[in-house]
Amino acid sequence: MLRRIPAWCGSVIGAVVLSILATAPAVASAPPDAGVTIYVDGTPVATGASISGSGDITAVMNAYLSPGGGARDLSMAFTGPLKYKAGSIIAPEGATIEWSTDSGASWVNIEPTPATSITNVRARRAAVVDGSTIGSVDFKRTISFSPQTGDLPAAQGGDGWDVFFGGDKAYAVYHHEYTTIDCFSRLTAQRCAGYPFRPLNVNRFGAYYSFQSSSGWVDTTTNRLYTWAGKYADTSGLYADAGILCIDVSSTPGECGFTSLSTGSVVGRPQYLAHLGPQFYVNGRIVTVDRNNAKVGCFDVAAVAKCANSPYAFAGAAQNSDVPAGLVDGKLIIAADSDIVCVDPATMAPCTGGAWPVTYASIGKSFDRFPIAPHADASGVIDGFCRAAYCMNMNGVVDQSMVSPYSLLITAPSTTPSDPGYGNGVVRVQLHGTRLLFPKGNVLEVIDCYDYATAGRCANYPMTLTVPGVWNPYVYAFNPDPVQANCMWMNNNAGIIKRFNVVDATWGCSAGAASTEVAQTPRMTCAAADTIKTWKTATLSTVAGTPGQMTLSINDSQGNAISGWQGIALGLNSPIDLSTLTFAQTGANPSFTLTVVSGELLTGVVDVVYSTTAAELCVGLEIDPEVPLTECSTNSGVNATLDEFAGTAYATTATSASGVNVCAAGYVQPGTSAPNVTNLPSTGSNVNVLVLVAFLVMGAGVVLKKSRRTS
């Protein structure tokens, strides 16, 4: 039997987790099996030995379960002067902890007081085990990947501008009308309960108003949605203030506050509100463009307040002018009437590294309404931005070596791009790797793509949005899917949210898309370092559809790419060797991304096998202060029992006991000249006992939680 010296230490799968199973390694000692050993300061003490003292006394039980499923109980009974120490139990997460004060005849789930009245403790949880090896066990985590396809419902009931995400939800805010938020499941396309939602569901007096470029951002930690909106300032309905409206989306939607981003003055009449600019999220801040008053606002998400130095007034824009604005490499670029402005959201001041703002007169250019287009080099690294017929680096200098993606709109004999209808500065483009997506056409229903890697039009473009019976289905904005690497979402004037594959320009997402799942690995012992002993293999075991080439990438627990473990070719039933992957690289919750390079994948299952040690249940004990010790107590110890559910009832499958003699300080056994104890305590001291019960459980995963109190 395994003996382990304990250490005190201070699901969860993306979209779908099918199950967690244990493989069946060679069994060194056939389960069920149990053993318990008592230690004093880490040194094992033989059963029947005498102990006393100031040292840390621990008892360790290892229990290995019978093959098969069913719930399991690990219970301990305390005999003699050894008593349960209040608040000391550590149990696997998900286990039901119970206490008994009548030797197990009845159980309660609230710890009784006083703790000395407790005679037994137990932890019960479901488990699925195929077999176990004394010393370690192999776990097989089965993960299902499901790249999504399809669109959200065509009849949203509102005209949104873009689509943004929070967890598995997709949101849209109706624009140039009273603020209304819609919500759909990103996976099933079903509308969320309680939506569409209109804050203060009343007429304009006291209601909110959304701008032309209505958008939002969701803090998935607090489940709060933030959207840039106008709030009517008085009962006349003629004036409004602009700021960030908070919506609680944790369950039934509800308003959670409004933060003004203006200087306290109104921003204009309602007819002007529609033309206020967009919002952008960057590094914990939401920056906004007030095109009516030529100001940039800033909202600090963590502080739930207006940022310092907000608002920032920029030059070169007449009131109510339609100026394009875009986020480029973390900086806000605004093409005003007479100046090009760069604002750093971190400081709410002009960008450093250049002479900002830059006047058109100084560079020999003029204002145009083309969207701000990020420029990238051939590998996709952003190095500037482009206007209609020229590009600039991030220092505000025109770079003749850069080619504007809008060069695709040049029709001979003209040498400048034709404006396809970029009115009101309302369109947002999207850089995806080296590809720059932008709407094109007299009514903007065509999507075009410029590839910086090839310095020309992307393969398979342009693509056309056809909506029968819908007038002017303008494409407004793009947003990448938060999970699928090559899947892009778009919203348009027809109120239709669609998905398309960026690489092959086809509607719906599967081929070329990716699905990421988090493989959370439970901490099985009291020591966090014992979570993973060895990563073993990753095997694509099941596929549905007709996939061609697929790859697997592994990121650490913070989502960072692990070098050497990206884009690994993945074949059906061909294991990838993970033996050189370490716990130090992955952490406890690495993510696995399955990418479909070619073909069509509906679902795929990857089995990730790793080795770990048994889990531990830890309980502290102490000497009952009410029991006088004049010599040695010979009936002290811990009895441990493993009960396993089979059929319709629990049955005891393994037991173990370890008994010791707890002696008074300085006690000398008759006929000897020295104290007959392992440790000598100080007079009147209590003995602190820590009992660790290690057992092998499977199911939804086991993570130890700690509750300990010292006397």
Characterize the structure shown.
The protein has 711 residues and is mainly β. It has 3 domains: 16-132 and 614-706, no CATH class; 140-146 and 514-612, Jelly Rolls, CATH 2.60.120; 164-507, 7 Propeller (Methylamine Dehydrogenase, Chain H). 2% of the residues lie in helices and 43% in strands. It is built from 3 helices and 53 strands. Strands 3-2-5-52-49-7 form a 6-stranded mixed sheet, with no helix packed on it. It has a 6-stranded mixed sheet with strand order 4-51-50-6-10-9, with no helix packed on it. The radius of gyration is 33 Å and the shape is elongated. Mean pLDDT is 76; it is low at 1-29, 128-135, 201-205 and 672-711. The chain crosses the membrane at residues 687-704. Keywords: Membrane, Transmembrane, Transmembrane helix.
Strand tally: 53
Average pLDDT for all residues? 76
Distance between the termini: 33 Å
Largest sheet, in brief, is: 6 strands, mixed
Contiguous low-pLDDT stretches (5 residues minimum) are 1-29, 128-135, 201-205, 672-711
Q: What level of helicity do the residues show?
A: under 10%
Shape: elongated
Indicate how many domains the architecture comprises.
Answer: 3
So, CATH architecture of the largest domain? 7 Propeller
DSSP strand (E) fraction?
A: 35-45%
* Helix/sheet category: mainly beta
- Report the top-level CATH class of the largest domain: Mainly Beta
Round the Cα radius of gyration to an integer and report it: 33 Å
Find the CATH topology of the largest domain: Methylamine Dehydrogenase, Chain H
- Determine the number of helices (DSSP H or I, runs of at least 4 residues): 3
What topology, given as strand order, has the largest sheet? 3-2-5-52-49-7
Q: In the CATH hierarchy, what is the superfamily of the largest domain?
A: YVTN repeat-like/Quinoprotein amine dehydrogenase
